[in-house]
From TrEMBL:
<feature type="domain" description="HTH marR-type">
    <location>
        <begin position="19"/>
        <end position="159"/>
    </location>
</feature>
<dbReference type="Pfam" id="PF12802">
    <property type="entry name" value="MarR_2"/>
</dbReference>
<protein>
    <submittedName>
        <fullName>Putative MarR family transcriptional regulator</fullName>
    </submittedName>
</protein>
<dbReference type="GO" id="GO:0006950">
    <property type="term" value="P:response to stress"/>
</dbReference>
<dbReference type="InterPro" id="IPR000835">
    <property type="entry name" value="HTH_MarR-typ"/>
</dbReference>
<dbReference type="InterPro" id="IPR039422">
    <property type="entry name" value="MarR/SlyA-like"/>
</dbReference>
<dbReference type="InterPro" id="IPR036390">
    <property type="entry name" value="WH_DNA-bd_sf"/>
</dbReference>
<dbReference type="GO" id="GO:0003700">
    <property type="term" value="F:DNA-binding transcription factor activity"/>
</dbReference>
<dbReference type="InterPro" id="IPR036388">
    <property type="entry name" value="WH-like_DNA-bd_sf"/>
</dbReference>
Length: 173
């Protein structure tokens, strides 16, 4: 096996490192998913819940916490956003009264995002339609074998993309 984990031989030193036809199809398919899926999720959430995809992700991650509170730095990591982007979104979510930000009691230099009861209701009201849409555009086209393969691919690739597995490292439930 080559260093990249495949049985294909490494290209010769003077040969361009092009993708083979199967790698190219897989790469272009992955790119299409990465580009098109977020836009579809964004459209549904804007239309049905007046939320951006990132706003919904922030609320959903907070809703999964017991209690529904996280340091802003940790929330940024879990949502795949920068602290700057999260701060802008947090301001919008505060104006809608879905979250509040408060100083961390243990570390006064840190700020926590806290889901409000109104924010919890927003997640609970939004989730059924969002889940239905995710099923329609993604899961309804896959059987359990496809899903297992998808998870296996993610587990093989994510350590190179996110070594700490902070975004996609949720345990099996």
């Amino acid at each position: 096996m080559s260093a990249r984990g495949s049985s294909r031989p490494a290209p010769e030193a003077d040969e361009p490192p092009w993708l083979d036809p199967l790698e190219r199809r897989a790469w272009l398919t992955g790119n299409a998913l990465l580009l098109k899926l977020p836009a579809l999720l964004e459209q549904q959430l804007q239309r049905d819940a007046d939320l951006s995809y990132f706003e919904y992700l922030v609320l959903a991650v907070l809703a999964e916490q017991k209690p529904p509170r996280l340091r802003m730095s940790r929330l940024a990591m879990l949502t795949g956003g920068s602290l700057s982007r999260l701060s802008h979104v947090a301001k919008r979510l505060e104006l809608k009264e879905y979250i509040v930000r408060e100083t961390d009691a243990q570390d006064r230099r840190s700020t926590n995002a806290v889901l409000t009861p109104s924010g919890q209701r927003k997640v609970l009201d939004t989730a059924p339609g969002h889940v239905a849409w995710v099923r329609e555009i993604f899961f309804d086209h896959l059987d359990s074998e496809h899903l297992q393969q998808f998870v296996a691919v993610g587990r093989r690739v994510m350590p190179q993309i996110d070594p700490g597995a902070e975004i996609a490292g949720a345990p099996d439930r």
